[in-house]
Specification:
- It is built from 14 helices and 15 strands.
- The chain is of the alpha/beta class.
Length: 423
Amino acid sequence: MRPVRNISRRLSEGMVVQAIMHRGPISRASLAINTGLSKQTVSEIVSDLEEEGWVAETGRTSGSIGRTAVTYEIVPSAAHVVAVDLGAKKVKVAVADLMGAFKAEETEPTDRRGGTYVVDQIVRICGATTTALGIRQDGARLAVIGVPGVPEPDTGRVRLAPSIPGLDVINVAGHLARGLGYKVVLENDVNLATQGEAWRGAGQGVDNLVYVALGTGVGCGLIIAGELVRGADNAAGEMGFLPFGANPLDNESCRLGAFERVAASEGILRRYLSKGGKGGDVAAIFDRARDGETAALAVVEDTGQLLATGIAAVCAIVNPKKVVLGGSIGARTELIETVRAALPRYFHSPVGLEAGALGPRAALVGAVAAGLGLLHNSLFGGGLGADRIALPSGEAKVPAASSEKHRLARGVLAPASAKPGRQ
């Protein structure tokens, strides 16, 4: 725990940390210029941060007339965040340092039994990964868990997650916090993918952004005026429940959503079979469309038109500058081309449309972004709010010798799938 300081000091400290994070290595004199704080205040804050291990001397200024000055940078290893992307088929875990550098990633097939079995699986992978990195007990401060449903902050449960049984009847957040030994935050996985693309993907610099994920299900994340929109019950962006495409009053529509029933993978397969298609999965349908098969071409066109209609409905409400498409189906080039051609017929204002840049890692990158924002805010934010923390730039790369080396050399993890990625 950090010493308690008054709000004015915390605000000043947050300004100094942000300046060091984005402009380091930087001298105390330059910090005073960049923050507008007095040299004495900056000196006191830097001394405190250095004593507590958050910043360190990294060299001296050079190339100017006069005396050189000591420069400072953030100590990246001073704290870590753990990110988890829990999918129906895979659990992905990443560990990142205080500057957002990814130190390791691990992936395993999701325990099909769901519920507490999945919770225990997440605890095991997270613990093994931080241990393999040599992170001390208090070195991991926070975990952000992306879930395929709607988290309930009051109960810790996850609603509307039919792909993983049992999450709606247990305190997922509470079980994870007890098992991990540090704070746990649950967030919808599409919201995290949206944050990931906004931080280090196709949505960088866009204050009004819609991210649409299409795969087994369909959902969207909304960033309006630079802030993620969650809604009153954390259910903003449940695009699958748009009341068209199928009868919204059917029992199946009430469970999955009328739009999801027709736009997502099961609806695509049904339409393909109804047109005389020969079976297979969605990937096979797109492959056959590329080869010119009539039924497959028709289904890809239908799906593009449906998706354009759904996107237009969202655009009519939030008027975004850009829409980013992701998910195992949504990111397909053929589908994006179809949606791009159809969207102007459904929505009157120009909207940028492109594929996500992060692919199946979008939610994991977003979980790190969310975790860093929360961690920096709790340590140095001074009440700014996590969404207002300017995160470190850079790429979400993993050192070449991370996952497989740890898994094989230390034997700390159960066998994992060959490559990370949501299916």
